[in-house]
Amino acid sequence: MYAKTFHNKTVWLSGHTGFKGAWLAQWLLKLGARVHGFALEPETHPALFEQLELSNKIHHQIADVRDPDAVHKSILATQPDFVFHLAAQSLVRLSYERPVETYATNVMGTVHVLEALRGLKKKCAAVLVTTDKCYENREWLYGYREEDPLGGNDPYASSKAAAEIAIAAWRRSFFKGHPVKIASARAGNVIGGGDWAKDRIVPDCIHALQKRQAIAVRNPRSTRPWQHVLEPLSGYLWLAAMLSRSVDCSQLASAFNFGPANEGNRTVAELVDEVLKHWRGRWKNKPDAGAGHEAKLLQLSTDKAQALLGWSPAWNFRQAVQFTVEWYRRAEENPKPAVLQRLTVLQIENYCKSARQREIPWALS
């Protein structure tokens, strides 16, 4: 899939040492792309990036998006055909502890990428990733659309809203008639094998299950748009492919939501119960009064992605959880890098097969 678009093309990928970035790097390698990764050292141990030994397969650059000179030099030296900007401080609770770092990374880091892209004199499709939490969440029942107001109660969410505002401003101010085409992507909550981040529900589940302890759940009734990590990644890839192919990008060079079907909007309790269908254990309600504000209800509308890109989810909620837990269980049985790489590629192939069966356009291209 996507082979005609990405084979033998150069991709600049920030945040490649993170969870989503490592999955995207592995998928791009499978497509035959030349990947130049730009990121900090992995923040967790284990880390999927290290488990897959990706440093041996891509151009691996340790650098910080907060350093404008490093970003500028890296992008201009790479001369990419595609850019995927995923580098971020992505944890809500950590943003309360490090608000200035969160803003410096998420807002100014994005601006540094935009400024570097201004210097490119060649055709390039760039997808800059933010989050579904960039919306001013009023706990409404309907899914947020791309034109809804941006905002955020916490430093993380508000920094991502500010990043979206910056992307739109730079696009209008500096990229009209420019060979670089820029879109932003807002994804719902992702799950998948190899996420080891602190204060995320699935990694918390796995850590507890591995220790045969009860899973501590802070907000069992909170609702999120849960999706497997491959869902938004397929959207990023397809959006970039469409940007690169289109002559008139007036509609595509904009913001897009990528989230699950309505049945994927589940409570945290439902997610944990589904995990426990595949790994025997138990959970307990353990509220954390010291935690900052966390939204109770959040849903996304993906009507725009479906209308303009023909994009839709390939896996339902049950499948997303099943493949996620399967990855962790098999990784615990045999953690050798070669085994984990085969497992990860096999799940990408299974996902592509499901997309073909659903006749999703990117899978048929």
Characterization of the model:
This protein has helices at 3-6, 19-30, 48-51, 68-78, 92-97, 99-118, 155-174, 201-210, 230-245, 268-276, 303-308, 317-333, 337-357, 361-364, and strands spanning 10-14, 34-39, 59-62, 82-85, 124-129, 180-187, 190-191, 215-217, 223-225, 227-228, 255-258, 265-267, 283-285. By secondary structure, it is α/β, with parallel strands linked by helices. The strands form four sheets. It has a seven-stranded parallel sheet with strand order 3-2-1-4-5-6-11, sandwiched between helices. A two-stranded parallel ribbon has the order 7-10. A two-stranded parallel ribbon has the order 8-13. Helix 4 runs parallel beside helix 6 and helix 6 packs parallel to helix 7.
How are the elements arranged and paired?
Blueprint: H1 3-6, E1 10-14, H2 19-30, E2 34-39, H3 48-51, E3 59-62, H4 68-78, E4 82-85, H5 92-97, H6 99-118, E5 124-129, H7 155-174, E6 180-187, E7 190-191, H8 201-210, E8 215-217, E9 223-225, E10 227-228, H9 230-245, E11 255-258, E12 265-267, H10 268-276, E13 283-285, H11 303-308, H12 317-333, H13 337-357, H14 361-364
